[in-house]
Amino acid sequence: MPIESFRKYNLLSLLVSKASGISTIMKYNSELLYWKYKKLREKELTNWHYEYFFTDYFKIEKDWYKGKKVLDIGCGPRGSLEWVSDIADEAIGLDPLSDNYLKLGAINHKMKYVNSSSENIPYPDNYFHIVSSFNSLDHVDDIDSTISEIKRVLKPEGYFLLISDIHPKPTITEPSAFSWNVTEKLKPELNIVKETHFEGHKMYKSIRAGIPFDHKNISPRYGVLTLLAIKQLADR
């Protein structure tokens, strides 16, 4: 399916789902259709690009991950944590479509896939040293519940890594449209130590292009937000 046709299908699905009240089912079907299309087109869903964004981009040494518990929210089927699965204590990919992704090749990955939504993460408080959300935060159904869960499962002084589209209108697969000030939802539990805004809608390609977002241009358009935040120590 051509990308433009997929976008039109995405918009149509959103209108249908709002009218019928089955938005979550429509979202999951659209997400799965997208990944099946990518699998058909690419033959193999590669994951070579993730290590750079988990390490060099955020200036975190790969060795820092040794013995750590890592959670990637909305991981998709590519194997976002394969690069760290041999050295981390736990490398967990959380996605409500994980069981379906196993059929797309994820069954061959060393990282662990957990079939769950981000609004109810099935792990105890203060469990993970690092939680990431790469191209997934705008895909969740309830952003406030998701952020609350991220804060809950992240250890004090743990890292939260975010890479997300910023877009003015929701779609069926990206129902949580939010603005740049979404960062305020992370406070006060999380302290933002790095935040960058980019022009573009190609996610990783837009970041590599490195064009700063022009906030003086008020025309509605996509942008890309990246940030590193650290969970504050609890008050003593």
- Structurally, how many domains make up the residues? 1
Q: What does the radius of gyration come to?
A: 17 Å
**Quick one: overall form?**
globular
CATH class: Alpha Beta
Structure in words:
By secondary structure, this protein is of the alpha/beta class. The chain has a single domain (47-231), classed as 3-Layer(aba) Sandwich (Rossmann fold). The protein contains six helices and seven strands. It has a seven-stranded mixed sheet with strand order 3-2-1-4-5-7-6. Helix 1 (3-20) packs antiparallel against helix 2. The relative contact order is 0.13. Mean pLDDT is 91; it is low at 1-21.
Quick description:
The protein is 27% helix and 23% strand.
Keywords, separated by commas or semicolons:
alpha/beta; 6 helices; Rossmann fold; 236 residues; disordered N terminus
Sequence-ordered SSE layout with sheet pairings:
Layout: H1 3-20, H2 23-42, H3 50-54, E1 69-73, E2 90-95, H4 98-101, E3 112-115, E4 128-134, H5 143-153, E5 154-166, E6 190-199, H6 204-209, E7 223-231
Parallel strand pairs: 1-2, 1-4, 2-3, 4-5
Antiparallel strand pairs: 5-7, 6-7
Helix pairs in contact: 1-2
